[in-house]
Amino acid sequence: MAHKERTDRREPLRAEHREVEGIRVVTLRGEIDHDVQDVLSEALLVGDGSAPPRIVADLTGVTFMDSSGINVFVATHQQVSSADGWVRIAGAQPSVLRILQLVGVDTLITCHPTTEQALRPDL
Predict the structure, then answer these.
(1) pTM
(2) Engineering a disulfide at 13: which of 22, 30, 101, 118 sits with its beta carbon 3.0 to 4.6 angstroms away?
(3) How far apart are CA 54 and CA 121, in angstroms?
(4) For the chain, how are helix, strand and coil distributed in percent, rounded to 5?
(5) φ, ψ for residue 74 (rounded to 5)?
(6) 3-state DSSP call for residue 108?
């Protein structure tokens, strides 16, 4: 299997926010690595503190994630859990989901196939 250098086609991280019934949905596109961990942190942790933070991170458009992204998700989980909130991951591509599973993030943060499923209160 040939190894391709990914820097030649690197896509910068973009984040879009919306709110669905009090849940912050953060749609991420691009690559998550050490160069964008601050962007990712800011995208996930914006809130006024008036309600328990509930966040769905839509990773459908994320093509790569390294340990920097994992660290941000774990820190986000810890912060929102301490405020009686939660974070969920939706739509991770197989390569990204595999990384989340290998390091055990999926045992801390629930991973769902779609944003719609992640938004369901009974899951």
Answers:
(1) 0.87
(2) 30
(3) 11
(4) 40, 30, 30
(5) -65, -45
(6) helix
